[in-house]
Design a protein that fits this description.
The chain has about 525 residues and is α/β, with parallel strands linked by helices. The protein folds into 2 domains: about 140 residues, Rossmann fold (3-Layer(aba) Sandwich); about 260 residues, Rossmann fold (3-Layer(aba) Sandwich), CATH 3.40.50.300. It contains 20 helices and 22 strands. Helix 14 crosses helix 15. It starts with a helix and ends with a helix. The structure holds adenosine-5'-triphosphate and magnesium ion. The site of adenosine-5'-triphosphate has 19 residues, from helix 2 and helix 16.
């Protein structure tokens, strides 16, 4: 059976021009500080899953936004099913059956899932009112056909990210998508959810739909793709059949040299307690994520990793420490100062730097420049002022240093933060917080959406922060990241610490059990109290 499938796939990817549903040729697109796409080329065949890969800022999202009609190219041609597209807009793209699920979701939190799905779609507009009954039937059909697990009646605010993504997918299908672009869909998913998404994508492929998949995780790319297109620095590199390539070849094509992700833990020299959390109780957005009286501490010169499946209280924990979420009971001390229920500003003054998991909502002021974002948190920094005024020259000099150190691209401090690619925006947030040089650094999902090269450098920076004697609380859904960096590991499950490990001596199987609450995990958690 496996053989037959392989042959069928080979057949599908064979050279048959009549199967070409999209051809983008000679695409150029420039923005104020960069040429994002240069002589771009992209070709899609009906019924394939086609990965688009490349470093942060390589132009992947831009090229796909052009295909979705969101950006107008400066020059170049787009053909859909052989027909040349003129005056191409999003409306036209949707009528041509192109749908896109963005890197950042675009749902209205206060509305239900069903309302979000039909919002703004052509049929609604034509009718002038919401035909909810008909919409529900259609939504139900998609849910059943592709095993998309969503609950149409729920308010979006109350659903988890994985479900939001499925809602975005149904929304695109509802508008008639035959060609579906998914921009880094797995960045926010647990491994389990990623597997579910892949099942959905495969069944859509069976149905003749064509899928573009963007990801920085080569393992996923090798698992799901029929073909792979590589971009580097805005240029088209090549398109290969999955069967003819390897992760090593792909990363060479993306980066131009060999990359090896091999972060080593540096020995810890734990000093005094910098963060002390005692009997903390914080109401969660969902029952599972309520923090239920947990206690732990982080010492100077060590990294404490919080492992766990997302949605088990990680976000609430970080937000409570940062003064962004109300604490019901218990205490949080930073360097001996009680900070529970203090303002974010007061918590910073007590010694906190914080890389939030959601760089869009909390991480950056998109309408401000990189210089402004980097310096805004340093209001007391005398090296950036002249008398009492901000000194733009000093700020620029400081900013340029940070941009170089963190390899933020493009290296343009005057560019607006909102104009950076996903991974580069993440680097700006990490840079700003780490450079505050605070006693405690709380980082949530620090390498989400960044490319392999940048993962390496951000992890190196976290090690440096620790070596220089600061305390680091690392919250990450990426178990490899936790294992690579942590001196100690606490497992958070359903708002409780279900186990603790020494970073040098981890029983990975047991750790996995404790995270998911497998049988063993449940027993261990019980006996642990
Ligand atoms: N709206 C915009 N305004 C200005 N510059 C932009 C805009 N969108 C993208 N850019 C720039 O174009 C380049 C390509 O960005 P793009 O978002 O396409 O990269 P990407 O390959 O998707 O990267 P990532 O993996 O980080 O998401 C980047 O240098 C980025 O700064
Ligand atoms: Mg992108």
């Amino acid at each position: 059976m496996e053989w037959l499938k392989v042959i069928a796939m080979e057949d599908r990817t064979a050279d048959r021009p009549e199967d070409t549903v999209v051809r983008m040729v000679g695409i150029n697109k420039s923005f104020p500080y960069v040429q994002a796409v240069t002589n771009g080329f992209f070709e899609l065949r009906k019924g394939e899953i086609h990965s688009l890969i490349g470093e942060n800022g390589a132009g992947k999202s831009t090229l796909m936004k052009i295909l979705y009609g969101l950006y107008q190219p400066d020059s170049g041609e787009i053909f859909i099913r052989g027909e040349k597209m003129d005056k191409y807009t999003t409306g036209r793209a949707i009528r041509q059956g192109v749908g896109m699920v963005h890197q950042e979701f675009m749902l209205v939190n206060e509305l239900t899932v069903a309302e979000n799905i039909i919002l703004g779609s052509e049929t609604t507009k034509a009718l002038g009112f919401l035909d909810l009954a008909k919409a529900r039937t259609m939504i139900r059909k998609y849910i059943d056909t592709y095993h998309l697990d969503v609950q149409p009646e729920k308010i979006v605010n109350n659903i988890a990210v994985g479900e939001m993504q499925r809602v975005e997918i149904i929304k695109a299908l509802y508008r008639g998508a035959e060609i579906l672009i998914l921009d880094e869909p797995t960045a926010v998913l647990t491994p389990q959810e990623t597997q579910n998404l892949f099942r959905v994508l495969r069944s859509m492929r069976e149905d003749g739909k064509t899928i573009v998949f963007i990801s920085h995780k080569l393992g996923e790319v090798m698992e799901i793709s029929d073909r792979i297109t590589v971009m580097r620095g805005g240029k088209y590199m090549t398109t290969v059949n999955k069967a003819d390539t390897s992760p090593a070849q792909l990363s060479r094509l993306m980066v131009g040299r060999d990359v090896m992700l091999d972060t080593r833990r540096v020995p810890a020299k734990p000093g005094e307690k910098v963060l002390e959390v005692k009997d903390l109780f914080v109401l969660g957005r969902r029952a599972l994520s309520t923090i239920k009286r947990i206690s732990f501490d982080v010492r100077a010169g060590e990294i404490l990793g919080i492992a766990g499946v997302e949605g088990n209280g990680q976000s609430e924990l970080a937000e409570a420490i940062a003064g962004l979420l109300e604490v019901q009971e218990g205490s949080i001390q930073i360097d001996g100062t009680e900070v529970a229920n203090q303002s974010p500003r007061a918590v910073r003054d007590a010694g906190l730097a914080h890389v939030p998991e959601d760089r869009n909502q909390r991480g950056l002021c998109k309408e401000f420049t990189v210089y402004e974002n980097l310096s805004a948190v340093r209001t007391d920094d005398r090296t950036l002022t002249k008398w009492y005024w901000r000194d733009e020259k000093k700020i620029a000099r400081y900013g340029d240093g940070v941009i170089a150190k963190y390899d933020i691209r493009p290296a343009e401090g005057k560019a607006l933060a909102g104009s950076f690619s996903g991974g580069n925006a993440q680097k700006i947030v990490v840079a700003r917080e780490v450079e505050m040089n605070k006693k405690l650094l709380v980082v949530a999902q620090p390498t989400r959406g960044v490319d392999v090269g940048a993962i390496e450098s951000i992890r190196g920076i976290l090690n440096d922060v620790k070596s220089s004697g600061h305390a680091v609380l690392l919250i990450s859904a990426d178990l490899d990241e936790i294992l690579a960096l942590s001196d100690r590991i606490c497992v958070l499950r359903e708002g409780r610490i279900s186990g603790e490990f020494d970073g040098n001596n981890v029983d990975i199987e047991k750790l996995g059990m404790l995270m998911t609450g497998g049988d063993e995990g449940a027993k261990a958690a019980e006996s642990a109290g």
